[in-house]
């Protein structure tokens, strides 16, 4: 038996003695609002799938999971609700024994265990909706206004083994400006809601969850922006989730840590369940530690870059420590399979200089600048001795790919992997800048690539010796770009837009 399912089975069998009466009570009549699984590390570095079910009512009992013919049902444990007033739901969880899928008793829903292999990986990012820019976030027959419903349905039809979300799930519930006791204020967003050259945090922040806020984080927004439109994809495969800046504790952080964060009090899971500290605390920020997910064919290091300012050096010392941990995780990954990094904010991406003419990052040219300075500095100080094969990110509301000269030189510690930015899965798109294929200086190296301002998602396939291939498709399944790490193009690098195939 594979060690991951064996460990999951032992954890599941240990659960009954640790649960209270509410958790143990079978609830076949519970109203199930969502069901999905999240991959998480154990305290010994293995990988498990945590099945989660969202049940209506903050004081509801939890259903059980059916593990298969002849197997005892798995009881679920209620997570600690940080704010029952604004989250009138119960989030139940259990380690899924075996590969799954497990059946949620009282429903037709199924949730998946650790996949047998990562052969087909769906990647989406920045999937939420901005009501003022996207026609009130109503479903559109042609999916042009907000296409997450269509993307989730189409991606689920591809039968993925794994889904990677690059972060920023909840836009409708995370405005940049709010009122505190009637006074208009800007929300702390690690530099994103202030002038581009101002990336500092002086003391406790002002956020949506501060006392007196008129826009606290709440379940209704999470349900509307993620759990209802993405239901098909949530049920299609286990997810690995990155935290975006819209999930900072000053924004939708309470919902993130209650609903999606892989931290859990279940026995053996690597980290306990966490909650956002008060905005008025001396240290109001919360950082997830990097962790690694191992599946046959793929090792994935997940970095919490939500607080990494795109320019400046906010929290630089913290991210230096994060990258030192990431270096150790990458170096200890199983040999013979692909090694990817998942981070909401790109390590390397090209954008326009801001409207005032001030550089927004290290200069790429007179017209462009590159982000993210904080992460670039940490990378230079702690490059993994085992080179990464790919970096996956979101944050920029478009698709962009950057390949670097020498990136395939496995003996070069400074060699950089290809950077894919998949931030085009729902939120109002940003203008594509640069507009055409480019070859520009990016953080001291030559970056070659292109971008697209078009809604879509990616399907990636890890290959032998770190090779990978993939397709970027639109909500209707039409090809937008094709990628192959073994056959880079001279003008566009590892990926080629569909009109150049």
Account of the 3D structure:
This protein has 501 residues and is of the alpha+beta class. It is built from eight helices and 28 strands. The strands form six sheets. An eight-stranded mixed β-sheet has the order 14-15-16-20-22-21-24-23, covered by helices on one side. The protein has a seven-stranded mixed β-sheet with strand order 13-10-9-25-26-27-28, with no helix packed on it. Strands 1-2-6-5 form a four-stranded antiparallel β-sheet. β14 and β15 form a beta hairpin. The model is unreliable at 1-28 and 407-413 (pLDDT under 50).
Can you lay out the helices and strands and say which pair or pack?
Layout: H1 3-14, H2 21-24, E1 32-41, E2 47-56, E3 64-66, E4 74-75, E5 77-78, E6 89-95, E7 102-104, E8 110-111, E9 121-124, H3 148-157, E10 162-165, E11 177-180, E12 183-186, H4 219-227, H5 231-234, E13 239-241, H6 253-260, E14 291-295, E15 298-303, H7 316-331, E16 338-343, E17 349-352, E18 362-363, E19 368-371, H8 373-381, E20 390-393, E21 399-404, E22 418-422, E23 438-442, E24 445-452, E25 457-462, E26 468-473, E27 479-484, E28 495-497
Parallel strand pairs: 9-10, 10-13, 15-16, 16-20, 20-22
Antiparallel strand pairs: 1-2, 2-6, 3-4, 3-7, 5-6, 7-8, 9-25, 11-12, 14-15, 17-19, 18-19, 21-22, 21-24, 23-24, 25-26, 26-27, 27-28
């Amino acid at each position: 038996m594979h060690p991951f399912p064996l460990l999951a089975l032992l954890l599941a069998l240990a659960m009954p003695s640790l649960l209270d009466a509410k958790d143990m009570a079978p609830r076949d009549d519970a109203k199930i609002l969502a069901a999905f699984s999240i991959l998480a590390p154990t305290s010994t570095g293995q990988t498990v799938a945590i099945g989660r079910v969202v049940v209506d009512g903050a004081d509801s009992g939890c259903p059980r999971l059916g593990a298969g013919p002849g197997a005892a049902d798995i009881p679920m444990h209620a997570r600690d609700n940080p704010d029952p007033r604004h989250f009138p739901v119960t989030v139940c969880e259990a380690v899924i024994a075996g590969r799954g899928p497990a059946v949620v008793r009282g429903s037709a829903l199924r949730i998946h265990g650790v996949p047998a292999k990562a052969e087909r990986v769906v990647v989406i990012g920045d999937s939420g909706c901005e009501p003022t820019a996207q026609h009130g976030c109503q479903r559109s027959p042609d999916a042009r206004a907000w296409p997450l419903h269509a993307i989730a349905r189409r991606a689920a039809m591809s039968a993925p083994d794994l889904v990677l979300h690059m972060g920023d799930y909840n836009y409708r519930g995370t405005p940049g400006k709010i009122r505190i006791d009637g006074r208009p204020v800007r929300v702390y967003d690690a530099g994103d809601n202030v002038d581009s050259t101002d990336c500092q945090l002086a003391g406790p922040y002002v956020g949506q969850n501060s006392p007196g806020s008129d826009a606290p984080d709440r379940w209704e927004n999470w349900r509307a922006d993620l759990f209802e439109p993405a239901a098909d994809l949530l049920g299609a495969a286990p997810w690995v989730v990155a935290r975006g800046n819209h999930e900072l504790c000053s924004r939708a952080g309470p919902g993130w840590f209650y609903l999606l964060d892989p931290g859990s009090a279940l026995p053996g899971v690597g980290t306990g369940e966490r909650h956002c500290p008060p905005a008025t605390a001396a240290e109001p920020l919360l950082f997830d530690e990097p962790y690694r997910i191992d599946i046959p064919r793929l090792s994935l290091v997940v970095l919490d870059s939500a607080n990494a300012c795109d320019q400046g050096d906010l929290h630089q010392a913290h991210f230096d420590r994060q990258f030192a941990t990431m270096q150790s995780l990458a170096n200890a990954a199983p040999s013979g399979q692909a090694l990817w990094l998942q981070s909401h904010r790109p390590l390397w991406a090209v954008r326009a200089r801001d409207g005032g003419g001030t550089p927004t990052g290290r200069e790429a040219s007179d017209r462009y600048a590159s982000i993210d300075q904080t992460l670039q500095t940490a990378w230079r100080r702690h490059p993994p001795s085992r080179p990464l094969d790919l970096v996956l990110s979101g944050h920029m509301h478009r698709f962009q790919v950057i390949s670097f000269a020498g990136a395939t030189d496995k003996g070069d510690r400074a060699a950089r992997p290809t950077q894919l930015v998949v931030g085009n899965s729902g939120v109002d798109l940003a203008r594509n800048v640069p507009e055409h294929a480019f070859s520009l200086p990016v953080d001291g190296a030559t970056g070659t690539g292109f971008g697209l301002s078009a809604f879509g998602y990616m399907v990636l396939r890890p290959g032998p010796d770190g090779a990978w291939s993939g397709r970027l498709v639109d909500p209707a399944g039409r090809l937008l770009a094709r990628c192959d790490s073994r056959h880079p193009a001279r003008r566009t690098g590892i990926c080629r837009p569909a009109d150049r195939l």
